[in-house]
């Protein structure tokens, strides 16, 4: 069963070491025994019915955008619930949907009346259908298939109609099974190997479905209700809530990736900075995990179609142990060549994820300028050390302030803050970090469910950097990143460059439902509700919700905006606005954007690395937009050869631009090192290669800031605005502008 991405992502962030769903409590405590088969039909317990009603009371009264639980909401819940059970429309038929139809307007009554028999009957039928379909597929394996026909398979059925009847459902599953066979055939597997692999895959799926119990059914239904209010509200049943708490306490020992369900695959949703996956340079967002192997030589276990928590159980492990991932790359089609990646599980510390700096030297038209870059992976803060009064607690603001001082000493003339894929973090850090670049004033407005607005800002005079600056963002820049970028843009303090941001402008709080009942036992019965309670607004009055932050100079979108971002949710809260805060912009850069855009366009038109990036993006979009594939072996084989040739061309172009950084042509010799020494050597090489590899977007952002510095220097009035306190383009800025106190001293 696949859960909706929002719940998967919520739990993923809790177990960032591997990503995705928290495992069962047994898995987390080292007991890997599988769950027992459940007895059908599953029925709701009294406490589950009570938890549903209690959740409804909270959601209809205290949610930021509280909506009544009525027939209109019931229809939304019905749709979300069906999507959670059968989003690809491969289990239920039109007859099943007709049977379910009365429930469309009855789920509200089911919750208020504590009668969950309707949603449980849907879940029971899902289990029956799933087992039946997998047994049907196993039966097809015995006879094999003819791959010389002109048949095709629509593998993206989200917008398809429900199968009319059993015959149409059988045809769909024959095509689906045929495609599974063909993929393995294209990978060079023999018929016997394919038959064994698929039979084991389908049998494993049946086992996992048979283990689904009443709590799984209730979790799915209640999450459908929670997510129908807004995408970031979720319900966590007692088991999920317990696992969430356990996961939050675990050290980040794993591969350093956040996972999510995508169709029948487990896909890489995020890469944790400084984690094993990031350091390898071989794992990328969008990659799909096909199989997992334990240790250097353990057998590869096929995980296509697995539950997310089962995938987690196989990936997670003790520090310094090895796990192997067979990956279908994001930029490859469904028949793309699989890659084997070996990772050593490690603990990802906050120090490794800390802000980092470098200097890019730009030479153009006989002029050379240094541009400083600060890469900030998240708005982190060691809350525990801060509460205990540790003056040296770790925080994003303190680290960036230190790096700014070092960049001044290196005489940089502009600073780029790189927030690409920075998913947010501490609101306090976003507020204080903005204060490093403005003198005093509001940074963000926060409105609660009662409509009360609180303005948060920077009260400390002075700046750590008063020179020209730019903020580099992309679709993965969310929440606190959007607050920072929006404030810099509203003040006219710097340029925002890149792609439109995620658009998450809401705040959630966790409600322990057991605290509001007469439950006297130590064991939780009602679970927890993660509920939206506030919304962020820019100081200009517009929300960061839904629209995010639109860059002053935009880079090409990569196609992920169709599946990733607030606007991809049907029930996302709308964009709204409130009166602006009392603030005064320090400059107006709009008059110069045209010149900067023209220089940018001319430069990228002649840039080989930019052209390569555009070509790769175009191919990526093409593969992602493809929803139907041929079931003819010869045609698929030709398509794969064309794809392999195109990828080889891309690699060759990268090698020309970047130099040989992957070491693929290096001879393999016995270097006399032990495993740990060899791992360290490999890690150092990967870091060195990463520094050599081209980052066209970052390089271009530095060049745009280079141009901006030139324009500012040529305009006395603009220089006076952009460089408050009369700051200059060198370390002299530090003497001209009062230093911003460290965050620890400011509070």
From TrEMBL:
> Which GO biological process entries does UniProt record here?
proteolysis; signal transduction
- Residue span(s) of domain PDZ: 245-316
One Gene Ontology MF term: serine-type peptidase activity
Q: Which GO terms describe its cellular component?
A: outer membrane-bounded periplasmic space
UniProt keywords (A-Z) are:
Hydrolase, Protease, Serine protease, Signal
Pfam short name (any one): DUF3340
Record has Protease as a keyword: yes
The protein's matches in PANTHER family, at most eight in alphabetical order, are given as: CARBOXYL-TERMINAL-PROCESSING PEPTIDASE 3, CHLOROPLASTIC (PTHR32060:SF22), TAIL-SPECIFIC PROTEASE (PTHR32060)
Q: Which family does it belong to?
A: Belongs to the peptidase S41A family.
This protein's name: Tail-specific protease
What's the source species for this entry? Dyella jiangningensis
């Amino acid at each position: 069963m696949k859960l909706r991405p929002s719940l998967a992502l919520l739990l993923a962030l809790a177990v960032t070491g591997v990503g995705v769903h928290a495992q069962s409590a047994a898995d987390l405590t080292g007991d890997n025994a599988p769950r027992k088969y459940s007895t059908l039909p599953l029925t709701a317990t009294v406490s589950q019915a009570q938890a549903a009603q209690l959740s409804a009371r909270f959601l209809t009264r205290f949610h930021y955008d509280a909506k009544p639980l009525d027939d209109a909401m019931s229809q939304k819940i019905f749709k979300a619930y069906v999507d959670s059970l059968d989003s690809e429309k491969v289990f239920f038929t039109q007859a099943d949907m007709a049977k379910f139809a009365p429930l469309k307007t009855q789920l509200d009554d089911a919750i208020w009346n504590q009668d969950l028999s309707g949603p449980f009957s849907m879940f029971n039928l899902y289990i029956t259908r799933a087992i039946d379909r997998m047994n049907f597929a196993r039966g097809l394996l015995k006879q094999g298939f003819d791959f010389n026909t002109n048949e095709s398979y629509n593998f993206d059925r989200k917008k398809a109609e429900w199968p009319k009847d059993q015959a149409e459902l059988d045809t769909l599953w024959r095509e689906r099974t045929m495609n599974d066979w063909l993929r393995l055939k294209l990978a060079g597997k023999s018929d016997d190997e394919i038959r064994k692999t698929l039979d084991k895959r389908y049998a494993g799926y049946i086992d996992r479905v048979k283990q689904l119990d009443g709590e799984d059914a209730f979790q799915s239904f209640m999450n459908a209700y929670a997510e129908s209010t807004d995408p970031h509200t979720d319900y966590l049943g007692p088991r999920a809530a317990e696992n969430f708490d356990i996961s939050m306490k675990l050290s980040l020992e794993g591969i350093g990736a956040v996972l999510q369900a995508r169709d029948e695959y487990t896909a890489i949703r995020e890469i944790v900075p400084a984690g094993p996956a990031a350091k390898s340079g071989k794992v990328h967002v969008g990659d799909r995990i096909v199989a997992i192997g334990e240790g250097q030589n353990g057998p590869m276990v096929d995980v296509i179609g697995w539950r997310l928590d089962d995938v987690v159980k196989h990936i997670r492990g003790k520090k310094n142990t090895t796990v192997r991932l067979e990956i279908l790359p994001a930029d490859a089609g469904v028949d793309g060549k699989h890659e084997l990646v070996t990772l050593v599980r490690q603990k990802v510390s906050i120090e490794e994820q800390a802000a980092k700096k470098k200097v890019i030297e730009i030479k153009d038209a006989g002029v050379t300028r240094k541009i400083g870059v600060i890469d900030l992976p998240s708005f982190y803060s060691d809350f525990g050390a801060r509460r205990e009064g540790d003056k040296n607690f770790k925080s994003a603001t303190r680290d960036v302030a230190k790096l700014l001082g070092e960049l001044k000493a290196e005489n940089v003339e502009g600073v780029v803050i790189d927030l690409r894929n920075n998913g947010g973090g501490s609101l306090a850090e976003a507020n204080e970090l903005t204060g490093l670049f403005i003198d005093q004033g509001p940074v963000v407005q926060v409105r609660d469910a009662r409509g009360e607005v609180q303005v948060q800002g920077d009260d400390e005079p002075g700046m750590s950097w008063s020179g020209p600056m730019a903020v580099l963002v992309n679709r993965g820049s969310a929440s606190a990143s959007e607050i920072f970028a929006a404030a810099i843009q509203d003040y006219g303090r710097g340029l925002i460059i890149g792609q439109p941001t995620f658009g998450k402008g809401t705040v959630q709080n966790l409600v322990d439902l057991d605290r509001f009942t007469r439950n006297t036992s130590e064991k939780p019965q009602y679970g927890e509700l993660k509920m939206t309670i506030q919304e962020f607004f820019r100081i200009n009055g517009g929300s960061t919700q839904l629209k995010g932050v639109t860059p002053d100079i935009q880079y090409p979108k990569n196609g992920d905006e169709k599946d990733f971002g607030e606007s991809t949710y049907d029930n996302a809260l709308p964009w709204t606005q409130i009166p602006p805060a009392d603030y005064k912009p320090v400059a107006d850069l709009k008059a110069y954007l045209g010149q900067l855009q023209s220089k940018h366009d001319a430069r990228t038109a002649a840039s080989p690395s930019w052209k390569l990036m555009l070509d790769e993006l175009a191919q990526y979009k093409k593969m992602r937009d493809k929803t139907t594939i041929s079931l003819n072996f010869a045609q698929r084989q030709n398509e794969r050869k064309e794809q392999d040739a195109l990828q080889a061309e891309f690699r060759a172009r990268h090698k020309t631009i970047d130099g040989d950084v992957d070491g693929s042509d290096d001879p393999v010799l016995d270097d006399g090192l032990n495993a740990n020494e060899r791992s360290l050597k490999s890690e150092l090489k990967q870091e060195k290669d990463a520094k050599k590899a081209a980052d066209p977007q970052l390089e271009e952002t530095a060049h745009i800031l280079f141009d901006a510095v030139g324009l500012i220097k040529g305009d006395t009035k603009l220089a006076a605005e952009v460089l408050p306190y009369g700051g200059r383009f060198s370390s002299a800025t530090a003497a001209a502008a009062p230093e911003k106190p460290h965050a620890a001293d400011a509070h």
